[in-house]
Amino acid sequence: MVTATALAGVLALAGCAKDSSGGGGGGKTDSASGSCVTSTAPAAPAGSTSSSAAGAKVDASAMRIGLSYDIGGRGDASFNDAAAAGVDKAKADFGVRDVSESTAGPSEDEAAKEQRLSQQATNGYNPVIAIGFAYADAVKAVATKFPNTKFAIIDDDSISLPNVTPLVFSEEQGSFLVGVAAVYKSKKCHVGFVGGVNTPLIQKFQAGFDQGAKAASSKVVIEDQYLTPAGDFSGFQDPAKGNVVAAAEISKGADVVYHAAGASGKGVFEAAKSANALAIGVDSDQYNQKTVANSKDVIITSMLKRVDVAVYDYIVAVATNTLGSLPKRFDLKVDGVGYATSGGKIDDVVPALQGYRQQIIDGKITVATTPR
């Protein structure tokens, strides 16, 4: 079995209301940080000795994969692109030749989602992978009708059917770490979060980010805003609104802004660049994404949600009939979430981030999944 840990080093991608700070401890200011930091970071662990044993040879040349994207689809420089990268790597590594890709519209109804999944299953695609929690009802309905087809769904674990595999993540853990990074890089001790849609899933990103920022500083000020309310998924595909909301946070004083807004994040980056602020990406290593290349100079890191690893591992597990070996949740312990260092903009902060990372893995820090 190829594990997420083994893949983390070789995958290209490696993969929402205003709040003032509180808590975070009263330790001395870290010598490598700005004046915003008030807590001494946990010591980074000694050099890791993670091994990456090669998995068994996998031949998936006969596999036909159905891939149903969330809104934004391939090219969103975020969530969907990460899923696409996992499939692309499976194609390159295992000889997968037939992949059916389809993308959801921002205002489509459940019938349209069911039709998309049903069409792929009817045409013999197996497995069928649904990218996003918005597919939950559709997957449950369609998987019941096609018991011999394997389905996977990203970001939902509410379906209890033998042919459905949930692929879920600890987004709050990775977001905690970039919250710490935001504080270390903030000159104004004022940071911001922009969520795409105000749902429990995106609240996990906010919760982790806010907690991480407060862990590093007892005086940080945080702006938290969402582009759209629950039920209006256009918040994941509205760069113009992302720009406006991020610009508003920056005008209030935030000089580092983290987004969890899908394709709307492009607007967040543009707002940061226009205002000489800094930004943090999400899901993929957005510093290396061509579709946001014009703003890469302001992207200091990205919270890596390794959808690419989860999709790739799922394909391996289907091909080798080892679905039971997949992790129940892709968290820091299995490198299912993390942070990017491309561009070298947070190299000086990595020891602090690694210290906090290890404390989360060891259970010494529990990261909240809902905003406090």
From TrEMBL:
> This protein is called what?
BMP family protein
Per UniProt, the ranges with Low complexity bias are 29-52
Q: Where in the cell is it found?
A: Cell membrane
ABC transporter substrate-binding protein PnrA-like domain location is 70-367
The record's listing under CDD domains reads: PBP1_PrnA-like
Organism field: Amycolatopsis pigmentata
Superkingdom is Bacteria
Instruction: Provide the residue span(s) of the region labelled Disordered.
Output: 18-52
Q: What is the lineage of its organism?
A: Bacteria, Bacillati, Actinomycetota, Actinomycetes, Pseudonocardiales
List UniProt keywords, sorted A-Z: Cell membrane, Lipoprotein, Membrane, Signal
InterPro entries tied to this protein: BMP_lipoprotein (IPR050957), PnrA-like (IPR003760)
Pfam families attached to this UniProt entry? Bmp
